[in-house]
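Late entry, written up from scratch paper. The run itself happened at the end of the previous shift, but nothing got recorded in the book at the time, so transcribing now.
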Amino acid sequence: MSDPVRIGLVQMRCGEDAEANVAKAARMTEEAADAGASVVCLPELFRTSYFCKTEDHDVFRLAETIPGPTTELFEEIARRREIAVIVSLFEKRAEGLYHNTIAVVDRERGFVGRYRKMHIPDDPLFHEKFYFTPGDLGFRTFSTGGINIGTLICWDQWYPEAARLTAMRGADVLFYPTAIGWLPSEKAERGASQHDAWEVMQRSHAVANGCYVVAVNRTGFEPLDGSGDGEAGIEFWGQSFIAGPDGAVLVRASQNEECVLTADVDRARINAVRTEWPFLRDRRIDAYGDLTRRYID
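Output as recorded:
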């Protein structure tokens, strides 16, 4: 087994100024490198405020190609700091064709590859189906920074199938760049249960697959109309965390503060947990054919 590899996550506020957001993300990525991280993950769509609160055709101008300006910036950081970076972007694939995409860059190869978000939500203030075409690359892993990383995005985190298929491709760590929070009108009644469900679901992926899970959220309140009205918008709940292969939370961020967190991935620990809890061994692959159906009537 190889030596442990330190991973880092960036929890940040995202404002209206894309250049300022990118500069902050770059600075915090450097902080993670200073803390010894070999792989650093940024939150979902960190270049901008979360624009899916409304349906607005003007927003499509914010998309960029991959590779493009942002990947080039983080390629330079990755090369200089000898790290890998997981970069979440609004991808313009072609005229009228856009994706919610992760770009993976590393110190030696630059742009390694991409993952396009497979599950696209459409809920109040989360109108992602207006902007994003569902991913068509399948579930992917990348060997970088001394480990195999699996890249998934936000709404993907609710689907055990996505975690399983990514783990089956050899992922040591499942990364979930995320933009999730409370609607102010719901927080008092449902806020605690919503957050608990989100964390429990991802920790269960760690247990079921015997791997590490990294959930990277943004923080701060983003109003619906940019006015600062606290009655309409999303209060992103932060609380990014890293869980071990037994589901235990190794580090967790606060709700409101920007921060950089790190933890070590120990592949020997993955082997030990998967041996003690041999869920992959005991899967009944002969009995799961109906999983390809929408529902069994």
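Residues 66 and 91 are 6 Å apart (CA to CA).
(Scratch paper discarded after transcription.)
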